Every structure is written in structure tokens, then in C-alpha cells.
Amino acid sequence: MISSIVFILILAAGVWFFSKSVSKIIRNIKLGRDVNRSDQPLLRWKTMAMVALGQSKMITRPVAGFFHIVIYVGFIIINIEVLEIVVDGILGTHRIFAPFLGSFYDFLIGSFEFLAFAVLFGCVIFLIRRNIIRIKRFTSPELKGWPISDANIILISEIILMTLFLLMNASDQVLQANGVEHYVKAGAYPVSSLIVPLLSNLGTEQLILLERSAWWIHIIGILLFLNYVPYSKHFHIFLAFPNTYYSNLEPKGQFTNLPSVTREVKMMLDPSISAPEEAGQEPVRFGAKDVRDLTWKNLMDAYSCTECGRCTSVCPANITGKALSPRKIMMDTRDRLEIVGKNIDKHGKDHDDGSSLLYGHIKEEELWACTTCNACVEACPVNIDPLSIIIDLRRFMVMEESKSPTELNGMFTRIENNGAPWQFSPTDRLKWTEQE
Amino acid sequence: MSTDTSIKIPTMAELAARGESPEILFWVGCAGSFDSRAQKITLAIAKILTKAGISFAVLGTEESCTGDPAKRAGNEFLFQMQALTNIEVLNGYGVKKIVTGCPHCFNIIKNEYPGLGGTYDVIHHSQLIQELLDAGKLKVEGGAFTGKKVTFHDPCYLGRANGVYEAPRKVIEKLDVAMSEMKRSRANGLCCGAGGAQMFKEPEKGSKDINIERTEEALQTQPEIVAVGCPFCMTMMTDGIKNFEKEESVKVMDIAELIASAGEL
Ligand code: SF4
Ligand code: SF4
After folding, report:
1. Protein residue closest via CA to atom 2 of ligand 1
2. Of A89, A238, A291, B248, which one's alpha carbon is 20 to 30 angstroms from that of A169?
């Protein structure tokens, strides 16, 4: 009885804190500008099913893709077992599903054990890739410090949780075999039975203590992990789904046309069109200086980023030693958005801390290195679009601050004056016919 | 068909004056009009169109920059000025179909002009050439190219940007060459380094130029010809090959040039 109450309190606290963090993230994402991503629902569902559920873009890198799928499948399926643990915790029962499922229960528990072991193995491989083999995309400068620890914390947490799960099952099966009261005979234990010999010296009391401790630490661990996730790159386990649903479905080469610019250009080209009466409306900023100038999808992208670095590893600018890294663009956007969110919590909605995403986090040199080649967009396993952020920041620099490399200013002037980015007269446009 | 030293390309204005309108507008683009190397590609495309009996015309002096370098550099104003002006001209002539040799022009007219009132059926020259070959309107044999080692460099704005990977390869394969792919190709293709207005500025500080990285990769396939489908890639790859002093043994050629030369046009 007491344990049930304690359990319910812990569970409620875990879920409450988690939902608070999530609602903050949702609020932060909604700080972005509007963009319509609700057309073609069928295609959107399909994209989500393929890319998020089916992990279609993960497998382009076979080793990482394979182990990621193992961990992902294991993680999802083992949640059925967590459901039982929660029900047991609330009702004070033990293995409540067993009587209802009969021999299917044995099959389930047996499969969970194999999956738990596979997840554990996968996490060890990932730790080795990150810390011993030190694969290049996991050792880049933008990962120094917290991001590297974050990745390791996630992997180690999962290893601990899986170990606890197996330990819990190992002691449980000995207790079952010994006919100890409360421990109903149920389940199959193909993996944890291998640990059983290690427990041979323990008496019933100690076994119960071990089983209960593993059970409690396991479920508390899960709740702690759940509350860690919103602060981590691991939040992609939730956001991958909506983020792929709201993917950009247009051709990758198609950049947005700014409607605010269209209005002004039309007025310039045809003076008879007068400025629309938009009394009281703030003038729109051209391009983006800070996170609130980006779209909500850009901001959702930032929270969905797993920091895997696939984008950066295919970026021609990054490969050739330029300061640009599309992963850093996404990480900076998230970091800045978190700061803006905290400012809102502390100082209210319109607080200006004097910093901004552009300049404060992302430098001009990074932005001017981009070739707009779309390799990053293509590579991202959760359909993140770093390029659209880069372009919006460039737009701000060029249109609001006239800050562009001098060579580009020259190019602009030539297009304006003679309709070509080079210094040639428009009257020479047919010169090529005289070639040969 | 005998070729004169200079060919007569009709302009839209001339045709309109006669009350005619062509099947297709050939959008030449700034590089195709002014860059001396790219002019040769333009000529090859024009010869192919002529040979296949396509009725086409160019805008000539009425053509102006699509606004691509401005837009990718963030100058949306300049882009839209160019776009709206061009759309007025195109719509004025009632243009329906456009072919272009430049993937940047292709992408921007196909994807970004419709939102500003200019909707056309736009294709890249590799797609048109493939159609013509498939329909038997154009016939080529490998000839001098048979068995030659060729690798193809995917233009970003044709490939990833618009998903066109096969048309240029199908065209090259018609020449019975020994095609070999670079390590990074199709959706994984590496940029030549010119896109996003980089063509018009010095690269940012780094350890290497992008076109050198790409040329190294192309050279690993031991090619005799590096085939391209974009005038900017042409510049970058040609410079890259020169950098390795390989211009004697490795030629950089546009798909249109391959076909025109195989067909002895
Ligand atoms: S689009 Fe820009 S950031 Fe993305 S891979 Fe290409 S050069 Fe890098
Ligand atoms: S943007 Fe995508 S590819 Fe790049 S690090 Fe984030 S999740 Fe990975």
C-alpha cells in the first residue's frame, strides 16, 4: 500500500515535470514566424512513415544505421514492459499481465530480454565509435564540452537501464523457482538466466532486496531519463515524427519568395500601385536576425537535431576547412532559442538581451561559406533544413544591413545596371552566335 | 547538314514580328551568353536543337539575369526585380516551354518564378536531349567516344535541388563510353564550389578550395573526359584540372558538347 502511494507520487512528479519541459519547448517553437505545412497530408504521413518510423535515411550509413535501428526497435518494444511495470507499481501487483497472456507472456518477456541485450550491445558499439575509434563527425569543434557528454550520458543511461532490467529478471526467476510468495511463475528468461549463476550465494531475503532495488531503480531511472531528454539532443526521439511530417515537400532548390519584398518591388516597378494601408502594423524585417524571425519549422528543426553531424560531414565548405558547419547552425539556433525562452520566463515577453542568433552565435564568415548545395538537407536523417536558416540570415545581412562581401556588392550592381553578374553589355547577348 | 561558320538563331522579337511563335524558348543565361567557354556549350545546344528540327528562339538582348546569384546571396530585392521584369517579357511573348543549359536558370525559372506570376514548362538541356534521343529525332553513335572513360559531375541545382540524376547519364551512355562514377555521386554528389553566389567571390578562409577537392575525386576515376551539365561547374572543373596540370589528358565537356561532337554537328 505504502509502496503504491510512493510509486504514484514519483510517477506523477516524473510525468508532471516532463510535461512542463515539453510545453516550454512547444511555446519556444511557436515563437517562430508562420509557415504553412499542412497541405498534402497523405504525402506527409507517408514521409513520416518512411523517414521517421522506417528510418529510411539512417541506413545510408550501414553500421550506424543498423545499430540505430536495433536500439530504436528495442526501445519502443521494451516500452510494453514498462507499461506492465507502471501498472504493477500502481496496484502493488507483480507481473500483472502474465495471467491474461499465458504462454504469449513468456514469449514477450523472452523477446524483451533479447532486445534489451541488443540495445545494450548497440550502445556499447556507439560508445566505442564515439570515444575509442573517435569517428570524425563526433569529434568536431562544435561538440566540445556539453554535447560530447550529452551523447555519452544517453548511451550510459541506456546501458544502465538495460542492465537493471536484466538483473531484475535474473533475481525474479530465482525467486520464482524457489517458490517465494508473490513471485508468480511467469516469463521466459533466455538472457538473464545467464546471470543467475552469479546469484547462487544469495539467500531469499537478499534476492528480494536485489529484485526490488533493481525494479525501483529501473523505473525511477526511466523517469529521470524521461526528464533529461527535453534538455538533450535525445529529444529527437519524439520530435523526429512531427518534424518529418512537416517536411518541406517542395523541390530542394526552391527557396521561398518573400511576399513583403514582392510588395515593395511591385511598387517600385509600377508607381501607380500605392502602399497598402496597414495602419499599426510593424514593418516586417527582411530575413532573419534572431530566432523569432525564423519560421516555427526552423525552430522545430533545431529541437529535432540529433547532432549526428551527417550534414556537416557532407558539407563541401566544412570538408575544405571553412568555418561553416550546418550542424553548428542547428545547435546555435537551439541554444539561442533556449536563451530567448529563459529570458521570456524571467523578464517577460518583450525582453531584449542585446544578443541575437546572427553575430551572437553565428558569424558572417560561416554564412558566406555556404554554396547552397543542399547536401546537408539531403543527408539529414530527420529532414532538417539548415540551408533555409543560412539564407534567411544572409537576407538580413544583405537587405537590412547592406553587409555583404564587396565582391558580391559588385555583382549586385552589375546585375542592376547591365542585367548580368559580369561586366558585359546586354547588347552583346548574341555574341555567342558568332563563335567558332 | 552543313554548318556555316556562324549560325542564324531566331529571336523571339523577330518571330513575333512575323506573327510566329516557336515551340520552345532557349534560355541562354548569362554564362552561356558571355563566358567564352560556356558560349561553346550554348552553340552546341543550338546546333542540337536545329539538327533535331525543333522550332526554337532566344530572347537575345531582351534576356536578363534570372536573379539567381542575387537570390542565393540573400538579395531578394534584386532577385524579384529581375524575376518580375523577365516574367513580363516571357509572358508578353506567351512563352510556354523553356529549355536552358544552366541548372541555376532551370531551377529558378521552374521553381521560383511561378510564385511571381511566371509559370512555364521548364527543362534542362540534358532532359531535352534525352527526349530527342529516345524519340529518334536525334541519332548519335559513340564514334570517337566509344570506350572512352567518362565520369559525370552532378550539378547541385539539377541533381539534389530537382532530383534529375538520370537524364544526363542516359545521354552519356548513348555514346558507348566507359562510364565510371565518382565516390560521391547523384544525391551524394559533391558541389563544385560555385553555387550560392560563390562563383562571384573569393572562397572563405579554409584549407582547400572545393573545386580542388572535387577534381581530385574526379581524377581518381582515371577519366579521359569529365562530363558536366552546368556552365559554373565547367569553370570550376576546368580550373581544377588545370591546377593538376592535366588539361592535356583530361577534357571537361558539357553533355551538349559530347552529343554535338559525336553527331559531328
Ligand atoms: S547547403 Fe551550405 S551548409 Fe549545406 S552542405 Fe551545402 S554548403 Fe554546406
Ligand atoms: S541537422 Fe540533421 S544531419 Fe545535421 S546534425 Fe542535426 S540531425 Fe544530424
Report:
1. A370
2. A238
Domain range for A316: 259-268+285-425
Maximal C-alpha separation, chain A: 99
Q: Is residue A230 part of a domain?
A: yes
Question: What is d(CA A413, CA A408) in angstroms, rounded to the nearest whole number?
Answer: 9
Is B183 an interface residue toward A (CB < 8 Å)?
Answer: no
A99 and A157 part of one domain: yes
Pick from A322, A307, A301, A296: nearest CA to A240:
A301
Phi, psi of A172 (to 5 degrees): -60, -45
Distance A370 CA to ligand 1 centre (A): 5
Q: Report the alpha-carbon distance of residue B109 to residue A186 in Å, rounded.
A: 67
In a domain, A402, yes or no: yes
Q: Are residues A164 and A313 in the same domain?
A: no
Q: Which residues line ligand 2 (CB under 6 A)?
A: A 305-311, 326-327, 330, 379-380, 382, 384, 386
Architecture of the B139-261 domain: 3-Layer(aba) Sandwich (3.40)
Q: A368 to each of A405, B69, B189, how far by Cα in Å? A: 8, 13, 21
In a domain, A249, yes or no: no
How near does any CA of chain B get to the CA of A68, in Å? 21
C-alpha span between A266 and A271 (Å, rounded): 8
Which CATH number among 3.40.50, 1.10.8, 3.30.465, 1.10.357 corresponds to the domain B12-130? 3.40.50
Q: Measured on CA atoms in the order B107, B80, A249, A229, is the torsion positive or negative?
A: positive
- Contact: B206, A265; criterion CB under 8 Å: no
Same domain, A6 and A155: yes
| The predicted structure's pLDDT at residue B212 | 98
pLDDT digits (tens, 9 = 90+) for A32-72: 999 999 999 999 999 999 999 999 999 999 999 999 999 99
Query: Cβ–Cβ of B210/A316 closer than 8 Å?
Result: yes
Q: Which three cell numbers stand for residue B263?
A: 553527331
What is the DSSP track for A97-134? Answer: THHHHTHHHHHHHHHHHHHHHHHHHHHHHHHHHHHTS-
C-alpha cell at B193: 564550389
Residue A289 lies in a domain: yes
Please give the ipTM for the structure prediction.
0.95
Ligand 2 atom closest to Cα of A330?
1
Distance (Å, rounded) from C-alpha B119 to C-alpha A386? 28
Mutate to test the interface with A, among B3, B68, B72, B75 (most CBs of A within 10 A): B75
Same domain, A228 and A360: no
Q: How far is A53 from chain B (nearest CA, A)?
A: 22
DSSP string, B24-77: EEEE--HHHHH-HHHHHHHHHHHHHHHHTT--EEB-GGG----SHHHHHTT-HH
A208 shares its domain with A264: no
Taking the model in full, what pTM does it have?
0.95
Phi, psi of B82 (to 5 degrees): -65, -45
Using the atom order of ligand 2, give the atom closest to the CA of residue A309.
5
Whether residue B73 contacts residue B104, with contact meaning beta carbons closer than 8 Å, is answered with: no
Shared domain check, A150 and A115: yes
The number of distinct structural domains making up chain A is 2
Query: Is there a single domain that holds both residue A264 and residue A210?
Result: no
pLDDT digits (tens, 9 = 90+) for B62-74: 999 999 999 999 9
The confidence score (pLDDT) of residue A278 equals: 54
Q: What one-letter code names the amino acid at B11? A: T
Q: CATH number, domain at A226? A: 1.20.950
